[in-house]
Amino acid sequence: MSTVGTHISKEKDLNTQIESFVAQIKRRQIQGSYNVALATAQLLLRAVSATRWTHIDQLITQIKVLGKRLQSAQPRELACGNIIRRVLSLIREESEDTNDSESGDGAANSPLITSMFSLLSANDEYDSTRMSQGLGDGTSRSVKRDLKPYIIEGIQELIDELRSIDESIAGMGVEMIHENETILTPTPNSRTVLKFLLRAAQKRKFTVLVVEVFPNDVEKTHEFALKLAGAGIETTVITDAMVYSIMGRVGKVILGTNAVLANGGLLASAGATMICQCANVHRTPVVVCTGLYKLSPMYPFDIESLIEVGDTGKVLEFEDGSLVDKVNVVNPLYDYVPPESVDLCITNMGGYSPSFMYRLVLDHYRQEDVTL
Amino acid sequence: MPEASAKPAAVPLGTQTTKAQQQKGKDKNSAGAQETKAQRKAEKAARRAAKVSELGKSSHLPQEAIAQARAQSQAKQSRAASGTSNASSVGGGSSNSVVNATVSSAISSLTAQSTAIHGSDILDKRVGLFKHLEITRRSGTADAAKDIHPVILALTLQFASYTVIGSSARCRATLRAFQTVIKDYRTPVGTTLSRNLTNHLSRQIDFLITARPLSITMGNAIRWLKQEISVVSIDVSDDQARESLIEKIETYIRDKIEVADRVIVQSAVKHIGNGDVILAFSRSAVVEQVFLEANLRGIEFSVVVVDTRPFYEGKEMVRRLARAGLKCEYVLISGLSYVLNDITSVFLGAHAVLSNGQLYSRVGTALVAMSAKRKNIPVIVCCESIKFSNRVQLDSVTFNELGSPDELMNISIDSTPKPGPLKNWRDLPNLKLLNILYDLTPPEYIKKIVTEVGSLPPSSVPVIIREYNSA
C-alpha cells in the first residue's frame, strides 16, 4: 500500500510539474528550440519514471497525450514535438527489441528492410504481419517494468546528445572554412553558428559579415558581433538591405535555423529566404548548422501557418498616430527557406544534403507518431 | 604643404639626401629601386606616426594623415609578414592619400562627428572593400569661405542631415538654390558673366559636395546649366542674362521634373488594375504620384510598402498614401518573402539608370527585384530621363556612397536615437559597421522602365541618352 501511496503522490508531483511546464512554455519563459527541447526531454524523463503501466501501449498512449498537450502550448515551436516523437520512437524500439529476444526471432524487426536476404527469404510476409499485429497486441508482452531502466537510459542519452550538439557541429567548422574567407551569417541569433565560427577562428583567419535581423533579433545580433570581434575575428555588421550588394564578395553563407522540415526546407529567422536566394543567384554555397532535434517530420503544406508573427510595435511604433489605424503592419518572425536554396546541412551526426533529410526523419521517428 | 615640412624634421639626414635624389627622378625606374623607395617611404611614415603618437594629439598634422600613417604602418607590418609583392602599390597609394588628406583637411572642419575616419584610434574602422569610397563629412558650416551663398550653406546642411533626400528632390532644391545665387550674383570688374559665373557656381558646388556626393540628376542639371551659361551672348546686359538664366532653370525644372512626372504617371497608371496588390520599396516621389493618381481614378488596389533602416523613407510614403485613403501594408525588408506571395506587381523608383541598363537605387532595391523576379512578378521602374547616366558599372562595390556607420549602432525605429549593444563599437578592435546607401540591380530583373519619353526595356537606355541628349 505504501508503494501505491508514494506512487500516487509521485503522480501528483508529476502533474504539477507538467502544469508548470506548460504554463512556462505558454508564457514564453522557456524560449528557443534548444531550451524547449531540453526542458521537454527532462520532463519526459520524469514522466516516464513516475508513470505506471501494465502494457507498453499504455505508456505510449500516456506519452502521446502528454505530448499533444505540450505541443499545443507553443504550437509553432516544433522542437517540443520532435523530442516527444524521439522518445516515443525510443520506447517503441525498446519494446520491439525485447519482443524479438522473447520470441527468439532473429530477423530484423525494424520498419526498414536492411538486408537483401530478408527480401528474398520466405519469412518476409510473416514478419510484416507479425509487426502489424505485435503493436496492437499487448498480451504477448510480459516484460513491462524491465523496460523502464532502458527507456530512462535512452532518454538520458538523448539529453546528453542535446547538450553536446554544439560541440560536435563546431568540430566540423575547420573543414568548412578556408583562410581569408568572407562568411555571411543571416541568423546571428543562433548559438550553434556562434560556436561554429568561434571554433573555426582558432585555426583560421577569416572575416564575418553579420546581418542584423531587424527588428526582432537586432540586440542579439549586435551581441553576436561583439563576441566574434572579441575572439579576434574581423566582423562587419550590415543591414538586411545590403546583402545583395556585397554578396558577390562573400565566400559562404552559414546560418542556423529554428526547424528543419521533412522535405529539407528550413524554418529560419525572418529575412533568411531572400538572403539564401541572393546567395543562389551568386552561386554562393549555403550551409545550415543544426542539431538533429530540430528535424521535424512535418511537411510544409501550409507555410503561412508555420510562420509566427510577432510584435508590430517593433516595426512601427504605436505613438505614430497618423498611421496606427490606417496601415496594416506585419512583423513575421520566421521565414520558410525552400530546400533547393540550401546546399548543405551540418548536423551533429555529420553533413547531409537537404534532399537526404527525409531519411533522417525515417531513422528517428515513427510514422505512427507523426500526428500526436 | 605641412606634410613636406614634417618629413625632413622626422627623418635622419642620411635617408633624406637619398630621398631628395629620388624625388629629382635621378634613380632608374627598376622594380627593385621602386620597391626600396616604397619601403623607405613606408618606414618613414611609420617613424613619423610613432613620433606623432609620442607627441600626442597636439600635432600640426591633420588627423586624417595620422590615421593614414598608422594604416600605412599597419600595412607595412602585414606586408613584412606576407611578402613584398604589394610594396610598390602601397607606396604609390600612400602619396595619393597624403595629398587627399591635406586637401580635405583644408575644406572640412575637424569636428569629431564629421570625420568618417576616426583619427584618434589605432583601430582602422574603414571596411576594407569600401576604403576607396571614404570621405570626410561635414556637420557644420562655420568654416565656409565668404563667397558661399547662404542659401547654399542652408542646402548643404539639409543634405548632410538627410532632410532633403531623394534624387529628384535634391536636384530641384539645388536648381532653386542656384536661381537665388544667380539672382544675387554681380559680375566682378574685368570679366564677363559667361566666364565668371561658371567659376562662381563651381565653388558653390564644391561646398555642396562636402555634405554628400552629387546625385546623377544634380550632375546632369549642372552640366546643362554650365552649357547654358557658356552660350550667353556678351551683347546681352547682365540683368537680362541673369533673368533669362533664372527663367531657363525654371523651365528646366518644369519640363524635366514636374511635367516628366506627370507623363510618367499617365503611362504607369495603365499598369494598375482592380484587385492589384502592388509592392513599393522605400520612397520614390514618382511612384507615390502614380499611386495617388490611380487612387483618384477610382482603381481598387492596395499597396505594400517595404522599408529599410536606417532612413525609414517608406514610413513617409505610407503616411501619404494612407492619408489619401489607400489601403496600405507596411513591412520591413526582412519580412519581404512573407508578403511576396500575394503581390501582383512591383513598382520601383531610381536614383539613376546607368548606360549598361543597371538600376542604381536605394540599397535593398536589388533584393526586392531579385525576389520578385524569382516569383515571376513584373518589376516596373518609374524614372525621369534626367536620371539617365552615361556611366557604366558592374557591381555595388566599385562605386557607391557611404553613410555614417553610427546609424547602425542606433537601434530605434523612430527619430529618437537609442544606442544598442554596439554603442562603444569604435573602441573595439576587429569590429566595423557598414552603411552603404545604394545598390545596383541587374537589368534582367526589370521588366520595364517608364520614362517621359516612353516605356522601354533596360537595355535601351543608351539609345535614349544618345537620341535625347539628356545626359
Automatic annotation (TrEMBL), chain A:
<protein>
    <recommendedName>
        <fullName>Translation initiation factor eIF2B subunit beta</fullName>
    </recommendedName>
</protein>
<dbReference type="InterPro" id="IPR042529">
    <property type="entry name" value="IF_2B-like_C"/>
</dbReference>
<dbReference type="InterPro" id="IPR051855">
    <property type="entry name" value="eIF2B_beta_subunit"/>
</dbReference>
<dbReference type="InterPro" id="IPR037171">
    <property type="entry name" value="NagB/RpiA_transferase-like"/>
</dbReference>
<dbReference type="GO" id="GO:0005085">
    <property type="term" value="F:guanyl-nucleotide exchange factor activity"/>
</dbReference>
<dbReference type="GO" id="GO:0005829">
    <property type="term" value="C:cytosol"/>
</dbReference>
<comment type="subunit">
    <text>Component of the translation initiation factor 2B (eIF2B) complex which is a heterodecamer of two sets of five different subunits: alpha, beta, gamma, delta and epsilon. Subunits alpha, beta and delta comprise a regulatory subcomplex and subunits epsilon and gamma comprise a catalytic subcomplex. Within the complex, the hexameric regulatory complex resides at the center, with the two heterodimeric catalytic subcomplexes bound on opposite sides.</text>
</comment>
<dbReference type="Pfam" id="PF01008">
    <property type="entry name" value="IF-2B"/>
</dbReference>
<keyword id="KW-0396">Initiation factor</keyword>
<dbReference type="InterPro" id="IPR000649">
    <property type="entry name" value="IF-2B-related"/>
</dbReference>
<keyword id="KW-0648">Protein biosynthesis</keyword>
<comment type="similarity">
    <text>Belongs to the eIF-2B alpha/beta/delta subunits family.</text>
</comment>
<dbReference type="GO" id="GO:0005851">
    <property type="term" value="C:eukaryotic translation initiation factor 2B complex"/>
</dbReference>
<keyword id="KW-0963">Cytoplasm</keyword>
<dbReference type="InterPro" id="IPR027363">
    <property type="entry name" value="M1Pi_N"/>
</dbReference>
<dbReference type="GO" id="GO:0003743">
    <property type="term" value="F:translation initiation factor activity"/>
</dbReference>
UniProtKB/TrEMBL annotation, chain B:
<keyword id="KW-0648">Protein biosynthesis</keyword>
<dbReference type="GO" id="GO:0005829">
    <property type="term" value="C:cytosol"/>
</dbReference>
<feature type="compositionally biased region" description="Low complexity">
    <location>
        <begin position="63"/>
        <end position="95"/>
    </location>
</feature>
<dbReference type="InterPro" id="IPR000649">
    <property type="entry name" value="IF-2B-related"/>
</dbReference>
<dbReference type="InterPro" id="IPR042529">
    <property type="entry name" value="IF_2B-like_C"/>
</dbReference>
<keyword id="KW-0963">Cytoplasm</keyword>
<comment type="similarity">
    <text>Belongs to the eIF-2B alpha/beta/delta subunits family.</text>
</comment>
<keyword id="KW-0396">Initiation factor</keyword>
<comment type="subunit">
    <text>Component of the translation initiation factor 2B (eIF2B) complex which is a heterodecamer of two sets of five different subunits: alpha, beta, gamma, delta and epsilon. Subunits alpha, beta and delta comprise a regulatory subcomplex and subunits epsilon and gamma comprise a catalytic subcomplex. Within the complex, the hexameric regulatory complex resides at the center, with the two heterodimeric catalytic subcomplexes bound on opposite sides.</text>
</comment>
<dbReference type="GO" id="GO:0003743">
    <property type="term" value="F:translation initiation factor activity"/>
</dbReference>
<feature type="compositionally biased region" description="Basic and acidic residues">
    <location>
        <begin position="37"/>
        <end position="46"/>
    </location>
</feature>
<dbReference type="InterPro" id="IPR037171">
    <property type="entry name" value="NagB/RpiA_transferase-like"/>
</dbReference>
<feature type="region of interest" description="Disordered">
    <location>
        <begin position="1"/>
        <end position="95"/>
    </location>
</feature>
<protein>
    <recommendedName>
        <fullName>Translation initiation factor eIF2B subunit delta</fullName>
    </recommendedName>
</protein>
<dbReference type="Pfam" id="PF01008">
    <property type="entry name" value="IF-2B"/>
</dbReference>
